[in-house]
Amino acid sequence: MGVDCHHTESAQPGLEGAALASAVAAAQSKCERTRERLTPPRRRVLELLLEADGPMKAYDLIAAYGQDGEPAKPPTVYRALEFLERLGFAHRIESLNAYVPCRMEGTSHRAAFLICECCGTAEEFEPDFSPQFAAAEAAGYAVRTVTLEARGLCPACKVEA
Amino acid sequence: MGVDCHHTESAQPGLEGAALASAVAAAQSKCERTRERLTPPRRRVLELLLEADGPMKAYDLIAAYGQDGEPAKPPTVYRALEFLERLGFAHRIESLNAYVPCRMEGTSHRAAFLICECCGTAEEFEPDFSPQFAAAEAAGYAVRTVTLEARGLCPACKVEA
DNA sequence: AGCCAATGCGTTATGAAATAACATAACCTG
DNA sequence: CAGGTTATGTTATTTCATAACGCATTGGCT
Ligand SMILES: [Zn+2]
Ligand SMILES: [Zn+2]
Ligand SMILES: [Zn+2]
Ligand SMILES: [Zn+2]
Description:
Bound molecules: zinc ion
Shape of chain A: globular
Number of domains of chain A: 1
Number of strands of chain A: 6
Helix content of chain A: 40-55%
Strand content of chain A: 15-25%
CATH superfamily of chain A: Winged helix-like DNA-binding domain superfamily/Winged helix DNA-binding domain
CATH class of chain A: Mainly Alpha
Distance between the termini of chain A: 14 Å
CATH architecture of chain A: Orthogonal Bundle
Largest interface: A-B, 29 and 29 residues
Structural class of chain A: alpha+beta
Order of helices and strands of chain A: HHEHHEEEEHEH
Radius of gyration of chain A: 17 Å
Oligomer: homodimer
Largest sheet of chain A: 3 strands, antiparallel
CATH topology of chain A: Arc Repressor Mutant, subunit A
């Protein structure tokens, strides 16, 4: 990300082979349990996210969509992303206009990210908002979703800087 | 925002008259203290943000820029927004692609928002991240900025729903 | 004053991100 | 297999943001 970053960019290497197949199969069975359909475009976009080494832009997904090099049409990918987000298989990172596969084991969670401004990796973590929003809820707010994105330097890039 | 919201949309009424002039003057003198220049386009965009009842989109600012109805050119407004953000006079709300004037008194702070999905207001509050990021910093991260945006219903809209 | 570097602005054009709208196809379920 | 629902294909458009370049203004320096 930073022009002066020469890291291998694989702080979060993408899945391949058996690991990839296994992750997709897990999503598949999760869908079946809730009568949701992991259709070909949805599966394909999930694969692309899982294979990637970091956050993927929507138009990167569009370009990479066809195994033969044929790009997808934008709505194909945006619809798949909407589905994957709804099911919790992927998250959108607002401050990057980019998407990542969910890295957390648990089923339901509020996603939060530590984003490295040097190498571009985005590490998901489980935030604890209880103290924050006790006050908000006490003031009458009904909080539904929360976006928390911290930006800075990951350990590796911090050392080099 | 919500199609079923019939509120007056003035949960955060914009400034006018003396209050507006005073807010702009405060920004002016803050700039002078740090040798920054509140030039005409920057002042104009700040005015528009302060006058607004809620978050403003960049192209709303562009359209409203000229007192005679003439729109600004996009770079004019985006440059002004960059400046206002840098000085802490305005914040970008990532999940809305929109901008608000800073409502906090203190000089330096990490902005956070409670966004009502019904009436569209965005209330700024001062978050306390200390517990969250003690862990992150301990793990070697150097956190520089944080985006925290909570979405839900404000007290007024919650009652109506 | 005259010069210079730095900063900001005006303008044109383009790039990037996301969605609208509508037709067709696949899938349940009774 | 009929009919409602969900998903996809396709075309076009809208929305959001920046690149690039030349000119103007500012403020320090000699
Ligand atoms: Zn997750
Ligand atoms: Zn890094
Ligand atoms: Zn603020
Ligand atoms: Zn509201």
